Each structure stands twice: as structure tokens, then as C-alpha cells.
Task: inverse folding
């Protein structure tokens, strides 16, 4: 982030994570609380193909924001899910997007993108106005 300005990441975020191989991306939502760089929060996401229809997965997150870097661990409430998923991302100038990589050590990894909910709405409004 330019000028060393710290951006508070507290708020509602919309996200998308990509799986390895040919699996489709997965959407998620996050509610983040940023207390001087200490990150806590919760996420929700639809279940995978092998879950019953309508399954919603809940998880908690805990991590750290240092300058333009965000790292956190996601722990699912569902005991059938991986113990911990590690996220490492870069915060965009202005703090409206976070892009990076997630990892389940020894198993899977992929990329992710998070957009602050207010930023997602503004981006959609721009797309709609461009079509008019």
C-alpha cells in the first residue's frame, strides 16, 4: 500500500478460491475484524459436490495484517474438513481487494481473491453502467 498507510480490513468481503486441476472455483463470504493488524472473523461457503444440496460450511479465521500482506488460518467447524487452511495474500492499495494463495499442507493449494463487499457492489455498478 502506498505511503505505508495501514488500511483497516474490518467488514464484509466476497471471495472466490480456485481449486487445482479442473474443479470449478468456489465462492465464499467473510466477515473480518481487524484490530490494529490482528485479524479474526468467520467465513461461510457452499458445500462441495459430495455434500448434500444446500450445505453451508462455516469456519473461523485468525491471522495478521502487516503492511500490504495478510496471512490467516481458516479452521472449519465441520470435523470432516481439513484441520487448517493457510492463506497468504497481498492487499491492494486502498484496501478493497486481497489476492493470494491458499494451502492445505501436503494436499492442495490454489489461488484466491477477496473483494470488500462495498467494492464488489461498485464494480458491478460500473459493469452495468458500461452496458447502458
Result:
Amino acid at each position: 500500500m502506498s505511503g505505508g498507510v495501514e488500511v483497516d480490513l474490518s467488514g464484509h468481503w466476497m471471495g472466490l478460491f480456485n481449486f487445482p486441476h479442473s474443479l470449478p472455483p468456489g465462492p465464499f463470504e467473510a466477515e473480518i475484524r481487524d484490530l490494529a493488524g490482528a485479524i479474526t472473523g468467520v467465513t461461510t461457503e457452499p458445500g462441495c459436490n459430495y455434500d448434500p444440496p444446500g450445505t453451508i460450511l462455516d469456519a473461523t479465521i485468525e491471522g495478521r495484517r502487516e503492511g500490504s500482506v495478510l496471512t490467516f488460518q481458516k479452521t472449519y467447524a465441520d470435523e470432516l474438513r481439513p484441520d487448517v487452511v493457510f492463506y497468504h495474500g497481498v492487499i491492494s492499495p486502498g484496501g478493497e481487494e486481497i489476492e493470494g494463495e491458499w494451502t492445505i499442507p501436503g494436499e492442495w493449494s490454489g489461488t484466491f481473491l477477496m473483494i470488500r463487499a462495498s467494492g464488489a457492489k461498485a464494480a458491478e455498478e460500473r459493469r452495468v453502467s458500461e452496458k447502458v
Q: What stands out?
A: The chain has one helix and eight strands. The longest helix spans residues 117-131.
